[in-house]
Design a protein that fits this description.
It comes from Melittangium boletus DSM 14713. This protein has 15 helices and 12 strands. By secondary structure, it is α/β, with parallel strands linked by helices. It has 3 domains: about 100 residues, NadA-like (Rossmann fold, 3-Layer(aba) Sandwich), CATH 3.40.50.10800; about 100 residues, NadA-like (Rossmann fold, 3-Layer(aba) Sandwich), CATH 3.40.50.10800; about 80 residues, 3-Layer(aba) Sandwich (Rossmann fold). The structure holds 1,3-dihydroxyacetonephosphate and iron/sulfur cluster.
């Protein structure tokens, strides 16, 4: 690509030409967040996708999020800058294995985290995200047993909050499972006035040190409204962009993972780049498509989630 191409300007022009909307998750690189029409957590992005009237949804996030957008708004074209932008939770819950797991618990009401494939969603009774998981599980009729998939850590957190017992699929997020409790405690000693805010995909040993637990959007809202000045942030580092933007005078300290890597970025989310975003809008590919039958089957539990989230 010519070094003189102004990617941001080109993307803005393409947006007008295609009548497109760019939806981006908080874990996208800062430049992508800045060029997007809407930045949100997975629930807000699903809601935005469901109601957009744009012809094209350019989804800057991971595959399951783009799939959700397509299922909720099937007449729109959905583009994803890199189709390989998967998710460890979704990838490690293959539909055939999930079917077998579900068959072992035939009486259970199936609540699936949105970080799952369309095929797993299609086998579920209702979907949840990290921002509405407690609300959704509380809505499951009390006489029903619950099977929760695929994030065991979110599942345990929800069990604690709701008092409901649940059978858990043993999945986890490769980004959130490697935060180090030891390093977090060391940071707390170093910054005694800092509040710890954490995503519920973290392990219980990390979550027990958190002053506030919530979805990416909930974490953002919390740090912006809190009177505290310092925060240790235990989630993917992309969220720091909006935190610093919203409160430039506050200090945000990213929690360190349990390895020598100094960053905690989601390798799947970061497959999307400004260059790929530009190329996908210019070429109209890669486009996310789904078999019509699967789309219909996955729509019912997603719709139920949106209803139960109100
Ligand atoms: P949110 O729903 O909080 O945006 O989380 C999505 C996700 O993939 C977290 O790892
Ligand atoms: Fe999936 Fe974890 Fe990446 Fe979120 S951060 S998209 S759960 S791998």
């Amino acid at each position: 690509m010519s070094p003189h191409v102004d990617l941001e300007q080109e993307i803005q022009d393409l947006k007008k030409r295609l009548n497109a909307v760019i939806l981006a998750h908080y874990y996208q690189e800062s430049e992508i967040q800045d060029v997007a029409d809407f930045v949100g957590d997975s629930l807000a992005l699903a809601q935005a996708a469901a109601k957009t009237t744009a012809d094209v949804i350019v989804f800057c996030g991971v595959h399951f999020m783009a799939e959700t957008a397509k299922i909720l708004n099937p007449t729109r074209t959905v583009l994803l800058p890199d189709l390989k932008a998967g998710c460890s939770l979704s990838d490690r819950c293959p539909p055939a294995a999930f079917r077998a797991f579900k068959d072992k618990h035939p009486e259970h009401f199936v609540v699936s985290y949105v970080n799952s494939s369309a095929a797993v969603k299609a086998m579920s009774d209702v979907i949840c995200t990290s921002s509405n998981a407690v609300k959704i599980v509380n809505r499951v009729p009390p006489e029903r047993n619950i099977l929760f998939a695929p994030d065991q850590h979110l599942g345990r957190y929800v069990m604690k909050q709701t008092g409901r017992d649940m059978v858990l699929w043993p999945g986890s997020c490769i980004v959130h499972e490697i935060f180090s409790e030891k390093k977090l405690v060391q940071l707390q000693v170093q910054y005694p006035n800092a509040e710890v805010v954490a995503h519920p995909e973290c392990e219980a040993s990390v979550l027990r040190h958190a002053d506030f637990i919530g979805s990416t959007k909930a974490l953002l809202d919390h740090v912006l409204s809190s009177p505290k000045r310092e925060f240790i942030v235990v989630t993917e580092a992309g969220i720091l962009h909006q935190m610093k933007r919203g409160a430039p005078d506050k200090l945000f300290i990213p929690a360190p993972p349990d390895n020598d890597c100094s960053c905690n970025e989601c390798p799947y989310m970061r497959l999307n780049t400004m260059e790929k975003l530009y190329q996908c809008m210019k070429n109209g590919t890669p486009e996310l498509t789904l078999p019509a039958e699967l789309q219909t089957a996955a729509l019912a539990p997603l719709r139920r989630m949106l209803e139960w989230s109100l």
